[in-house]
Amino acid sequence: MKKFIIIFTSLASLFSLCKPAFADDTPSWLDGFNVGGYSSAGLTLERDQEAQAALNEVSLLVTWNGDSRLSFFGELELENPLSWNDERQFHDQESRFDLERLYLDYNITEKVNFRGGRFLTPNSRWNLLHAPPLVWTSTRPLATSRLFPEGTNGVMVFGATPFMDGAFEYKIFAELLEDQEQDSDELAFEHVKGARFSYKNQSDIGISILSFREKGVDNSYRMLGLDFITHIKQVEVSGEFFQRFDTRNKDGGSGAYLQSAVPLKPLGFNNWYWITRLETLQRPDEASAERWLVGATWRVKPTQLLKFEFTGGSGDQPESPRGFLTSFALFF
Amino acid sequence: MHKRFLFLIVAIAMMLPTFALAKENQTIIAVVISSQQNASELNLSTKNLNLIYWRKQLFWPQGVQIKPVNLSAKNAVRIQFSEAILGSSPETQIDYWNGQYFNGILPPYSVNSEEAVLRYVSNTKGAIGYINACNLDERVQSLFWIMPSGETLKSKPTLQNCTK
Fold first, then answer.
1. What is the dihedral of CA B120, B126, B132, B138, to 10 degrees?
2. B105-122, pLDDT tens digit by residue?
């Protein structure tokens, strides 16, 4: 554990010495490095369970953009570095390193780029922006983690082009290498390929198509995903819907969520938002799970969120405990 | 009664320059690149400018990295540019830039003055910026003109009220 911290701090201090390239400086390849990251910590009072507190993760984001068509991005995450509960007190037994993302991008033309490496599967808005400082709630909608692979090792072609008054983006990808290591609670997938098309204007909408095989149940699926985020007056409304199709014409499963974030400024609570979410998940041969969530989130700073939420519903899902959760998340 | 009417007239008259000033605060903006750069090679449209400032298009057609530069978030020219080209004010873009940061993409470099924009654009390969059209000089060339109405022009409009 100590070793990990030393590596983390050494890397962070090494890269923080690098500064952005200015016109008057002689650029070196080191000038293209940028290092940042995010972290979150929280307290969970789960129904019928003991209280738990944890430093959920410390993630390091490293980017490199030289003066060429090539760029690099990596995310190394230290998961659950420190946990506490009544029984085991403070411990780091669930602590582990995870290479979340590691890829090289190459610009082919202004509208076509190539990516090779490990990246987040681009089939859900939440999956692509899942960092705790970016989302209003401590828990993730079940449908965005229990129906498809969250990461893919492979290649992707992507780009953007102007369309009407907004930007049309595409991502077409295929897996080349299966995950070599798997968490015990993680679903395993293979032969992943698909595409995502999105349009950004005043509202963002996305459509994803995906094909993969789920190892545990030994079934192949095709999946359709739809997502959107928009603002109605000051209220943010977002949602996603996924439908899987079993290639043997059995029920493939489905899931969805709908969420709103209402600013509480008119009530005198500046930078506070009232959060409401409804979600559902149906996996083949499993009982369906429904969740409701109400909570309040304070945007302490543009890069910091303090969240409080109550979650209820049916079905036990370790990713979405029912009860009270609070957490603090920040970018650094 | 007569006095009250007079007072009202004076009050309205005092407010008129304020309204006029509010309109005058909106300037004609010039979108600029270095005067050394061949503008025709860039094949730039206003719609591409939207992609460039959202950092969705990162390279010029010849493979040179695009280096967009912004004025600071509270600068009136920045706000006008942002609303005309990106359709929103800088303060409402926080979530978007946090999301981009998570994916390794940093927002455009930000500077505090139009002189700094001129220096950055003229000395940095691949740079693009914007300034009040009255502050144009020989170090840069203008590709577009953004009118106070939000309309974009390719040809130079008549510049009024430039003090220099």
1. 80
2. 999 999 999 999 999 999
**What is the identity of the amino acid at B42?**
L
Taking CB atoms and an 8 Å cutoff, what residues of chain B touch A160?
51, 56-57
ipTM, 2 dp: 0.87
Q: How far is B164 from chain A (nearest CA, A)?
A: 28
pLDDT tens by residue, chain A, 332 residues = 444 444 445 544 444 444 444 444 556 777 789 999 999 999 999 988 889 999 999 999 999 988 889 999 999 999 999 999 888 788 887 888 999 999 999 999 989 999 999 999 999 999 999 999 999 999 999 999 999 999 999 999 999 999 988 899 999 999 998 877 666 667 889 999 999 999 998 889 999 999 999 987 778 999 999 999 999 989 999 999 999 999 887 889 999 999 999 999 999 999 999 999 999 999 988 889 999 999 999 999 999 999 999 999 997 788 889 999 999 999 99
Contact call for residues A212 and A189 (beta carbons, < 8 A): yes
How confident is the model at residue B164, as a pLDDT? 60
- C-alpha distance across the termini of chain A, in Å: 21
Long-range contacts of A28-31 (CB under 8 A, 24+ apart): A29/A64, A29/A66
Report pLDDT digits (tens) over B63-78.
899 999 999 999 999 9
Read off the amino acid at residue A51.
A
Q: Burial-class residue A118 by CB neighbours within 10 Å (0-12, 13-18, 19+).
A: middle
Within chain A, strands assigned E span 33-46, 52-65, 70-85, 89-91, 96-109, 112-120, 151-163, 166-177, 189-200, 204-214, 219-232, 235-246, 251-263, 272-282, 289-301, 304-314, 323-331
Question: Residue A56: exposed, middle, or buried by beta-carbon count in 10 A (0-12, 13-18, 19+)?
Answer: buried
The whole-angstrom distance between A249's CA and the closest CA on chain B is 37
Distance from CA of A84 to the nearest CA of B (A): 28
A110/chain B closest Cα distance in angstroms: 5
Token output for A267: 């009530």
Q: For residues B164 and B161, what is the distance between their CA atoms, to the nearest angstrom?
A: 9
pLDDT of residue B23: 47
Length of chain A: 332
**Which among B56, B98, B120 has the least Cβ separation from residue A331?**
B98
For residues A86 and A117, what is the distance between their CA atoms, to the nearest angstrom? 41
Interface test with chain B among A19, A110, A112, A236, by most B beta carbons within 10 Å: A110
Q: Which of B97, B98, B120, B152 to mutate to test the interface with A (most CBs of A within 10 A)?
A: B98
CB contact under 8 A, A61 and B124: no
Nearest Cβ partner for A129 among B50, B65, B102: B102
Measured over the CA atoms of residue A111, residue A116, residue A119 and residue A123, the dihedral's sign is: positive
